[in-house]
Design goal:
The structure holds 2 protein chains of 2 kinds. Chain A is mainly α. Chain A folds into 2 domains: about 1-50, no CATH class; about 75-305, MetI-like (MetI-like fold, Orthogonal Bundle), CATH 1.10.3720. In chain A, about 75% of the residues lie in helices and about 0% in strands. Chain A is built from 16 helices and no strands. In chain A, helix 1 packs across helix 2, helix 5 (about 115-130) crosses helix 9 (about 175-200) and helix 12 (about 230-245) runs antiparallel to helix 15 (about 280-300). The longest helix of chain A has about 40 residues, at about 15-50. Chain A is flat. Chain A starts with a helix and ends in an 8-residue tail after the last helix. Chain B is an alpha+beta fold. Chain B folds into 2 domains: about 5-230, 3-Layer(aba) Sandwich (Rossmann fold); about 235-350, Beta Barrel (OB fold (Dihydrolipoamide Acetyltransferase, E2P)), CATH 2.40.50. In chain B, the strands form 4 sheets. Chain B has a 6-stranded mixed beta sheet, with helices on both faces. A 6-stranded antiparallel beta sheet of chain B has the order 19-14-11-12-13-20. Classes of the chains: A mainly alpha, B alpha+beta. The interface between A and B is medium-sized, with 19 and 25 residues.
Chain lengths: ~325, ~350
């Protein structure tokens, strides 16, 4: 697309000069991003694909190219089905309970409060995201510690008269990984939804109030329809990031007890780096890449993602 | 329909007092306009009527009942916003239907009333469309239909015509006026456009800095403006104002003198351009500019008492730039204000110098 400035430049300097200039601009502005993308996204994917067709293992020696890793995935690995099932529960549960629903509730609640207290509560909910992940999980470990000194146990035993301390890490590990991830994930939805709610013209709420809508009717008929977009975006984005992230789970439960909280990404990590089956890990990781691309494309199609990337139209009033 | 009353109404936003003390009665079925420049408190008054703002003091009455604390949704008012405020994700039908949703109107009856309201403002063929697929004029009609569908006791219009082009504004003006007459609903129009106010309203409430400057019919405001502010706000092109000193039956301005009756001290003389004419006597000056306005010509004349604008009927100029002229007028068309208090001196007139 040529702008007026481009056209003026072409007029002044001729086509050849401007073509050189455009190529230079391309390199200057897109070059760094392209280099980074190639180095840290495309090259690793290619290496991953290459490794997945080898027998690379603890000895770090490649003796030949083989399809055995894929055979293992489709025939031999009994653990894979429960891992995939758990991943589904984890991703869906975290999204449905925290990242979207709770983020939405936080955004709606804090925007209807007065500005100062609204910002305060948003700030509180941002804390988990701002704290280093190791520190955050250490706090969780202390809170759910099976000893009587654990925060949850203190509250339950002294406040609610529970007799023996609970060991949540073994009795409710899945709920725990969902909650600990959700507390972090909710803040992103909260921020995006808050911005979107702020963007709704105030007179729409005034009009709805005069038309007879109460608070909940205003949320249902004005706020939520305006959030269709941000909700789609947060859902897709968080699905992908929940699929590939495992550091909080690794720190909190190490995927255990046994394999009870080992989601797919963590399973890849455990196979490759705990069992030393690097080639098998690479093959498993490839499916994660495929799933990621598939979800992104699905979202693109299903949620009309294209519109999000379109150049904004300036509205003149 | 309702009779509306403001009793010592005050509105503050934090420390800022937007409306210090407002007293006003609007009769049942009346069409009034709140007229004033931006920031004069006219929209704030309207939003208090709608229930969007709560008065900080005083009483607001609908038919004798205090409604200060009554929520917007329980007031049964219809409002058309400057931006129309149509719900963007709903079809025109759902937009008009929206107020009935909360009145528990049976579906068939509700749809019938939507049809009726849509017919009234002639948008019946647009019911399936989304607001973004409508022109400005159509959106405005839909907003009107939405305001009218619940048969409100009070219709509020917040600058409803300011987003329309000139031709459309003219026809919508006529339509809203005749609609109001047909339905007989008490209507309050907020506008900064004097033409809108004078053409549509039965009475005009001219506001300035949160206070009511004058309440009257369009004729009252034009012929007998209570203050300099009203005189300069009403009328287009604006009134000529000449400040001078009245003493012993003459006004002295920059050495020039002309007769006055009923005034003394510092005065400001107001002469409307359309009341002035070129003749054999009067203020002498020469034409510095000619502005054709279609069926009228506006002459800008430099005289001994300052720049004076003269409006002359006719589409072609009968005088040329640089021509020496004399400007005359009938004394009963002149207005004399006290400069100190900016108030009209009733009965005071000036005469053109011989």
């Amino acid at each position: 697309m040529t702008t007026t400035a481009d056209e003026l430049m072409i007029e002044r300097r001729g086509h050849a000069r401007s073509a050189t200039r455009m190529r230079a601009n391309f390199l200057i502005f897109l070059g760094p991003a392209i280099v980074l993308t190639v180095l840290f996204f495309i090259v690793p994917v290619l290496i991953d694909i290459a490794v997945s067709f080898t027998d690379l293992s603890r000895s770090l020696r490649i003796t030949g190219f083989t399809l055995e890793q894929y055979e293992k995935i489709f025939r031999g690995d009994r653990r894979l089905t429960p891992v995939i099932g758990l991943t589904f529960i984890y991703v869906f549960g975290t999204l449905a309970i925290f990242n979207v629903t709770f983020g939405l509730i936080l955004a709606i609640a804090t925007t209807s409060l007065r500005n100062v207290s609204g910002s305060f509560f948003r700030g509180v909910w941002l804390l988990p995201r701002m704290s280093p992940s190791v520190l955050y999980i250490l706090l969780w470990l202390w809170a759910v510690s099976p000893a009587e000194a654990g925060l949850v146990n203190q509250v339950l035993m002294q406040g609610f008269g529970l007799d023996a301390p609970l060991d949540l890490l073994t009795s409710a590990p899945i709920a725990l990984i969902i909650i600990s991830n959700g507390f972090i994930g909710a803040s992103m939805g909260m921020i995006i939804f808050t911005a979107a709610i702020r963007g709704i013209p105030e007179h729409l709420f005034h009009a709805a109030a005069v038309d007879g809508a109460g608070t909940f009717a205003q949320i249902r008929f004005i706020t939520l329809p305006a959030l269709r977009w941000p909700i789609s975006f947060v859902t897709i984005y968080q699905t992908l990031s929940l699929l590939v992230s495992f550091e909080y789970i690794l720190l909190l439960t190490k995927g255990g007890p046994f394999y009870d909280t080992t989601v797919y990404a963590l399973y890849v990590y455990r196979r490759a780096f705990e069992s030393g089956q690097y080639a098998y890990g690479a093959a498993l990781a490839l499916f994660l890449i495929v799933i990621g691309v598939a979800v992104a494309l699905l979202g693109w199609r299903f949620f009309d993602m294209e519109r999000l990337l379109q150049r904004p139209r300036i509205e003149v009033h | 329909m309702a009779k509306i009353e403001f009793r010592n109404v005050v509105k503050r936003f934090g420390d800022v007092e937007v409306i210090p003390d407002m007293n006003l009665v609007i009769e049942d079925g009346e069409f009034v306009a709140l007229l004033g420049p931006s920031g004069c408190g006219k929209s704030t008054s309207l939003f208090m009527l709608a229930g969007i703002y709560v008065p900080s003091g005083g009483e607001l009455l609908f038919d004798g009942h205090v409604v200060n604390e009554v929520e917007a949704r329980d007031r049964n008012v219809g409002i058309v916003f400057q931006s129309y405020a149509l719900y963007p994700h709903m079809s025109v039908r759902d937009n008009i239907l929206f107020p009935l949703r909360f009145k528990k109107t049976p579906r068939d009856e509700a749809l019938g009333r939507v049809k009726g309201a849509a017919d009234l403002v002639r948008v019946a063929e647009l019911l399936e469309r989304k607001p973004s697929e409508l022109s400005g004029g159509q959106q405005q009609r839909v907003a009107l239909a939405r305001a009218l569908v619940k048969e409100p006791q009070l219709l509020l219009l917040d600058e409803p015509l300011s987003n329309l082009d000139a031709t459309l504004r003219l026809s919508m003006r006529t339509e809203i006026k005749s609609l109001q007459e047909k339905l007989g609903v008490t209507t309050v129009l907020v506008t900064h456009d004097q033409i809108e106010a004078t053409t549509m309203a039965d009475r005009i409430i001219c506001m300035r800095a949160g206070r009511i400057e004058q309440i009257g019919t369009p004729d009252d405001l034009y012929l007998r403006p209570a203050s300099l502010f009203v005189a300069s706000f009403i009328g287009s092109p604006p009134i000529n104002l000449i400040a001078g000193e009245a003493q012993g039956g003459t006004v002295a301005v920059n050495g020039a003198k002309f007769p006055v009756e009923g005034a003394s001290g510092a005065v400001t003389v107001g002469l409307r351009p359309e009341h002035l004419r070129f003749g054999d006597s009067g203020f002498t000056g020469h034409i510095v500019q000619i502005e054709p306005m279609g069926r009228e010509i506006l002459y800008v004349v430099e005289t001994g008492i300052g720049i004076i604008r003269v409006l002359e009927q006719g589409s072609s100029a009968t005088h040329a730039t640089g021509e020496k002229v004399k400007i005359g007028f009938s004394p009963e068309n002149s207005l004399v204000f006290e400069t100190a208090h900016q108030k009209l001196l009733p009965g005071a007139h000036v005469h053109a110098p011989a």
